[in-house]
Amino acid sequence: MIQFKVKNSSLKKGFFCLFVPAVLFHSQLTAQPTGYSYGRSITILGSQVTGSLSNFPVLISITDPSLKQAAAGGRLQNANGYDVIFTLPDCSTVLPMQLEKYTASTGEYIAWVKLPTLVANTNKLICMFYGKTGVLANPSNPAVWDANYMGVWHFNSSVSDGTTNGSNLTNTGTTNLTGSKIGDGRRLDNNPFVQSSSGSIKYLQLPNGMFTGVNNFTFEGWVYLETVTTSWERIFDFGKNTQFNMFLTPSTGTNGIKRFAITINNNGSEERLSSATSTGTSAWHHFAVTIDAASDVGVFYYDGVADVSGTIDLTPNDLGNTNANYFGRSQYGSDEGLYGTFDEFRISNSTRSAGWIATSYKNQNSPSTFYNISSELTATTLCSILPIKIGSFEAIPTNSGTVTISWTAEQENASDKYILERSANGSNWEAIKTINATGNAGPQKYTTQDLNPIYPVTYYRIQQVEANNSITYTQIISVKLNEGALNNNSFIVSPNPARQLIQLAFQDNVLPQQTRVELINNVGVKVQVQPDFNGNTISLKLPRLANGVYFLNVYIKDTKHTRKMLIAQ
Predict the structure, then answer these.
(1) In what order do the strands lie in the sheet with 203-205?
(2) Contacts of 318 (CB under 8 A, 6+ apart)
(3) Counting C-beta atoms within 10 Å of the first and last residue's C-beta, which end of the chain has fewer, N or C?
(4) DSSP tag of 304
């Protein structure tokens, strides 16, 4: 029986009862997706994420014997790899995904999974389930690509668009190449010196009029160049002639220098982003270009890093009704065809952030270092230990200068633990408490105290260490110290433990002629410090000290106040 207390209701205040079998409540939280026999947790590493990203498509690329088809000794039942899904840590919220490649004989599995949020330095946990009989339909969902994607081309034995837009490419002479950057790629064997006007040039073409109404713009893609000794070859060239076009070349002439340009009045009026570095050959490199119409800024990225930026006030819409939108071919007949391979091209009608480009590069360049994958578990076991769910998390200041931190956890295991972390700025963190989970079924509330919060604002988060050693973080919360703490105490000292700096906060301004500060070690020796007075605060920059207990003495108008300090450098 679960009891609920009624407050502020027309009903009589008190308790009423709702009969719900507790075992059903708990099993509903932890039940695995129906029919899936096996699972793994995947921890997206926050250290690999730049910025705060929404609806981000993460590449999951795994080759594992367990992912072979059952006939080849693995767990998957469908020869096309259809019996794989991804969920949030609740084991029930299925994430949109798109399967790019599956090899039943080796267990190679490549898919794109849409994550609602990714935040720098905050790990993100998802679950992968597989091994269900009777799955016949492809679980791929184009919703993995947000509404800003105009086209996504995996080039995996196909030139079709992965979005719902139907922006399929027209292929002229290019061929599929296995073992490319991500699965298969598209090879353009213009070897070498085939001009764009030649009937033998190999290229791909996008639909006509694709850029009408497009102001903000992002291109992303991988390119493998065999050579840059050809002249003015194109990664892309969108437009309708030499007067109206927008292009990206890896080589202006035969020097390998990269350039993005857009014009509506021939090449003499181009707005350009010209790199000062040459393009690498015989290796995969990530190219990206963005245009922000509101700020008139264009940025050219190379291998995830902004290579050059500048003023670009033209937009793709200014090109008009384009009918010559090429990958690998130029509007200029004498420019030569590209000799190399393309993989994972994308175009958006939005300006992707620098964090988005950097995270895409890290994820796609080295998937194995972008996340950690747990060992295989039965689906039932995986969902019984994952995740620790924080239902509430709050910090409340007290009049005594401390902070009370509390949270409610669900689905925990007795071997889980919570590490409470504190920060002065929301970026640099220190662990201040470790609390072991009780492992009780159902919601469990935890409360603890921070006896030495940082003045005037302290940030908190909880590092959740789960039974399988997976680590995730809660959201960050902040608390402003109650001024009553200063009324009841002469001053607040933070942080404690201290490393390089001690700050003292007073209710009113303090004057150097009325205040003296000294720091004493545990054997009575005075440490030389120089107080820095600034209104109602005093800062002490610490020299190199031995770790241990110290005593901070503050004399205010001849009245001595002492605080015990721990210094841990």
Answers:
(1) 170-172, 203-205, 326-327, 236-239, 245-249, 257-263, 271-278
(2) 244, 262, 264
(3) N
(4) T
Q: Classify 431 in phi/psi space as left (phi over 0), alpha (psi -120 to 50) or beta.
A: beta
Identify the sign of the CA torsion 238, 242, 246, 249.
Answer: positive
- Low-confidence winner among 197-206, 293-302, 310-319, 377-386 (lowest mean pLDDT): 377-386
What's the CA gap between 47 and 57, in Å, rounded?
17
The vertex-431 CA angle with 428 and 436, nearest 5°, equals 145
Contacts of 35 (CB under 8 A, 6+ apart): 132, 133, 134
- Reduced to 3 states (helix: H, G, I; strand: E, B; else coil), residue 455 is coil
Q: What confidence tens digit (pLDDT) does each residue in 389-407 have?
A: 676 788 998 876 789 999 8
- Rounded CA Rg of the chain: 30
Question: Do 409 and 418 touch, CB atoms closer than 8 A?
Answer: yes
Separation in Å, CA 76 to CA 71, 88, 374, 489, 524? 9, 21, 18, 65, 70
- Asked whether the beta carbons of 399 and 488 are under 8 A apart, the reply is yes
Neighbours of 508 (CB within 10 A): 8
Judge whether 439 and 10 are in contact, CB under 8 Å: no
CB under 8 Å to 535, separation ≥6 — which residues? 509
**For the ranges 299-313, 454-468, 513-527, which has the lowest average pLDDT?**
454-468
- Ranges 199-208, 278-287, 354-363, 464-473: which has the least confidence: 464-473
The predicted structure's pLDDT at residue 272: 97
518, 480 Cβ separation under 8 angstroms? no
pLDDT of 486 strictly over 60: no
Torsion of CA 197, 198, 202, 206, to 10 degrees: 30
Cβ-contact 357, 301 below 8 angstroms: yes
In whole angstroms, what is the distance from residue 207 CA to residue 539 CA? 64
Give pTM, 2 decimals. 0.68
Q: What is the DSSP letter of 230?
A: S
Instruction: At 103, list the tokens.
Output: 């090899």
pLDDT tens column, 34-79: 999 999 999 999 899 999 999 999 999 999 999 999 999 999 999 9
Burial class of residue 219 (count of CB atoms within 10 Å of its CB; 0-12, 13-18, 19+): buried
3-state SS assignment for residue 369: helix
Distance of CA 550 to the CA centre of its chain: 41
Whether 344 contacts 364, CB under 8 Å: yes
Is the pLDDT at 558 greater than 90? The verdict is no
Chain centre to alpha carbon of residue 545: 38
pLDDT tens string 404-447? 999 888 767 666 789 999 887 777 788 889 998 887 656 788 99
Give the N- to C-terminal CA distance of the chain in Å, as an integer. Answer: 52
